């Protein structure tokens, strides 16, 4: 099992370098775009089984493919994310890619991303409500609206002070989640801590921009 984990971590490191283009062995921009797409879609497929091995940094670079400079890469990546989410073969946190992509300048692509968001929220809200009504104990991270916490607040129109206040409150929530523990379900604690780490990392990235 340890050997398998080492292999997965090694693979994640390779994919991360492919996403960031740190290995300067390709000159063609078209080839670079296909490498970024291949890395991002591979992480999407691996996420269902190996999500705990996807670090906040790798997740961050993967999701940013939704705003890639290549329209081809953006479209293919979002289509793949939508397909896997629809089939429930991917953690719901990856749906925040749709929220990042709604700033798309091309009208039909922007409309498609809104459609993906609406379908995701409707589909997973129904599933979350069913778990709530059943004997199965659900977790707050099961609700699709939770992924909205990962949207870049700099893209929101409105009063800046109000947005900043909301961002500070949200950051405080992430800090609290990082210290929270579920006395019944240890797996829920892991999910909460993972979400908190990603949220805190994302806010730090926004602040440094």
UniProtKB/TrEMBL annotation:
The keyword Cell wall biogenesis/degradation does not apply. Pfam families: PDS5 (PF20168). InterPro entries: ARM-type_fold, Pds5. Keywords: Cell cycle, Cell division, DNA damage, DNA repair, Mitosis, Nucleus. This is Uncharacterized protein. GO terms for biological process: cell division; DNA repair; homologous recombination; mitotic sister chromatid cohesion. GO terms for cellular component: chromatin; nucleus. The keyword Secreted does not apply. It is found in: Nucleus. PANTHER family: ANDROGEN INDUCED INHIBITOR OF PROLIFERATION AS3 / PDS5-RELATED, SISTER CHROMATID COHESION PROTEIN PDS5 HOMOLOG B. It comes from Pisum sativum.
